[in-house]
Amino acid sequence: MVVVKYLGHAGFEIRYGDTKAFIDPLGVFAMHGESRQTLNVLAHPEEVKHLDMILITHEHPSHCDKKTVEELVEKNQCYVVAPSPALATLGINEKLKVKVRAGDRFVLNGVDIEVLNAYHPKSDYPVGYIIRKEGRSILHTGDTYAFTALSRIKADLLLVPIGGGAVMDPIGAHTLVKEMKPKYAIPMHYNTYSRIKQNPEEFTEGLGSSIKPIVLQPGQVFEF
Prior knowledge:
By secondary structure, the chain is α/β, with parallel strands linked by helices. Helix content is 15%, strand content 31%. The protein contains 5 helices and 16 strands. It is globular and about 45 Å long. It starts with a strand and ends with a strand.
């Protein structure tokens, strides 16, 4: 069984048995001139225990939250898997940095990690990830628009942005999911601030009986 907890924005906790990974964990942040906010799920990163690794999709502060990541690493001495521009922002032990490029595939703490291309022109080097263990696969697209190579990838669970602007909107994400045909799809990267305000029902409606959409609020959990 895999346990997936939504941390808010594009952040997730993934647990395969005793192995725990975070993807794009976000704590306190300010975006587009709006007041500084706290995503309550990670308001106190120093309290997180038994974290094995953090995967970061790109260098933007809403995905590579320097303070939160550094506190998590200080507490857990966990690995940080990320492209070079993201790793360069972090003041952590170099031995815990795992630099990746699209096309890489490796095993870390028993988890098979594959690094994917992402199309996000505002980033210096954006990626997505497929993580696999115990016969179950999860694809976190990172910040991206849809593109042909992405639509051909297969995974059990798809974590996909729907906020629009510099990423897919609900209609674009809906179209991508219908092409990819995962068993489950969870929308992310929306409603964190006003410029990415979206109604997730525009994404979930009409996906078909073979694809189960899961809309999570920060802190909620999905198991499969």
